[in-house]
Design goal:
alpha+beta, seven-stranded antiparallel sheet, 5 helices, disordered C terminus
Length: about 210
Amino acid sequence: MIARWPPPTFSPLILLMLTSILFAASMTYWLLVRRWTSRRQWVALADWNREQGFKFVRFDEGEIPAPLTHISPRPRIRFCLQKAPNMFLQLDSSESLAETLNLFVRHIETELAPAGLHPVTADRSVIRLFGMEPFPTLRGADRFVTFGADRSAAESLSKSSAAALLPPDVALLLHGQHMILDFSARPFDAIEFQRMLALSDQIITHLPISVAAR
């Protein structure tokens, strides 16, 4: 004799459990997709921050760190990663910026008069936002246009070894107690961060002392 089982009955609890599992799986999939697509840059930067000891820093509307306070109107900061004395900044395009700028800012002990090296192959750099005078006839004009608050500051920078160490697509700005490397022609990622840190270590030992602010 074959046993007959009663037909299964509808269970709201089982339906609720299955719905919850489906919802959790869908949310996990959505978060993973978002993590590796629209949020991929944030994730990569966060991973690098943890490894190197940098931290994300938020600025209020209109707030910007020195020496970029000299830029008017002030651009909006998209990303800021900081570990004293170093800072990585990505500035969004605004009224003062035609395009996004990628900057490395390092605080230095020496007070320097404004001077900079702008790559001849670049249409833009942070240097052009500081209203300094160009001196295209100074040494090294085949690779960089030298800018300065005056000719003495520009000439001292052009004669230093800093120009020889600087890659042709990276701009250098000295301003007060800050050294800025503009690497806007390159990606804003961990690989370039490591390169800028190493480059700054090399350049900082070849800064022109005679460019000290008067």
